[in-house]
Amino acid sequence: MTTRLLLISDTHIPGRAKRLPETVLRAADAADLVIHAGDWVAESVLDVLEQHGEVLGVYGNNDGADLRARLPEVARRTVEGVRFAVVHETGASARREIRMDETFPDTDVLVFGHSHIPWHTVSPRGMRLLNPGSPTDRRRQPVHTMMIAVADDGELRELELISL
């Protein structure tokens, strides 16, 4: 069995967009699980995504008490044998992979946000670190982004960074 994943972060609604882009909502409909790495800003974004499917999310530094009451700071789930952890912030990019190996020793894939910069690296012990960027607030990036992937038989496959 395979599980289709949509990875997003830093939606910052309504500050950066009025609503989620239709491309994101279609991807959520096609996914078995939506992973959101924080900075939703409006609780309504969580409500909307939950109408499109199952959501695994965390709160970010810009999220208020309403979202913090519903979401953890760190979320963990094993999907098709792949051990995921989700967190908003990982700190500076320098030595990130080494720090995250120490912080998340029992994780195969760490999904994070905060910087709005798409990121895909592998730590020294083999953990994949993924930042999907932002579908609504590109900051200094050329385009808005999200990621899709498939978890299957203990592996993360078909990882794709999507430009919106």
TrEMBL record:
Residues 4-152 form the Calcineurin-like phosphoesterase domain. The keyword Nucleotide-binding does not apply. Belongs to the metallophosphoesterase superfamily. YfcE family. Signal peptide: none annotated. One of its GO terms (molecular function) is hydrolase activity. It comes from the Bacteria. It is an enzyme of class 3 (hydrolase). Pfam families: Metallophos_2. Its EC number is 3.1.4.-. NCBIfam families: yfcE. Keywords: Metal-binding. This is Phosphoesterase. The keyword Membrane does not apply. Its cofactor is a divalent metal cation.
